[in-house]
Write a structure and sequence with these properties.
mainly alpha; elongated
C-alpha cells in the first residue's frame, strides 16, 4: 500500500479521532488549571481546619462501605463500562472536529502557497521536420 493510502486509512479510523479528541480535551483542561489552583490555595485553611472532624466521619462510614463493597463494585464496573463507551464516542466526535478544522486550515494554506507560486513557463516545442534522403542505388 502507498503511504497516502495508509494515512487516509488512519485518518478515517475512530481511534485516531478519539486520540485527537482526548488531546484537545487535555489541552482545554490544562488551560483551566492555574485558576483551579488559585481557588484551592485560598480554601486550604478551611479544609485543614475541618480535617479532624471529616476523618472521624469517614472512619465511621468505612465499615459499612466494606460490607457493601462486592455488590457496589459490580455496579460501578457496569457504570464504568457504559461511561467509557460514552467518553470514547465523545472524544471521537471531538477529534473529528479538530482534525477537520486543522485539515481545512492546512488546505487553505496549501491553496495560498500554490497561488503565490509562479507557474512554470513552458517553452514552445518546435516540430521536428523529417527530411528524406535519397536511397543509394546499387
Amino acid at each position: 500500500m502507498t503511504l497516502a493510502t495508509e494515512v487516509k486509512k488512519l485518518t478515517e479510523s475512530k481511534p485516531f479521532y478519539a486520540v485527537a479528541g482526548a488531546g484537545d480535551y487535555a489541552v482545554e483542561k490544562l488551560r483551566e488549571l492555574p485558576e483551579q489552583l488559585q481557588r484551592l490555595q485560598s480554601r486550604r485553611y478551611d479544609l485543614a481546619k475541618d480535617l479532624p472532624v471529616k476523618a472521624r466521619e469517614y472512619a465511621d462510614k468505612a465499615e459499612g462501605i466494606a460490607r457493601d463493597f462486592p455488590e457496589k463494585a459490580r455496579e460501578y464496573a457496569d457504570q464504568l463500562t457504559h461511561k467509557a463507551t460514552e467518553v470514547y464516542e465523545d472524544f471521537a466526535t471531538r477529534g473529528r472536529k479538530v482534525v477537520s478544522k486543522a485539515s481545512g486550515e492546512a488546505a487553505l494554506e496549501l491553496e495560498e502557497v500554490s497561488e503565490a507560486a509562479e507557474p512554470p513557463v513552458a517553452e514552445p516545442v518546435q516540430p521536428v521536420k523529417k527530411t528524406r534522403t535519397p536511397r543509394a542505388k546499387a
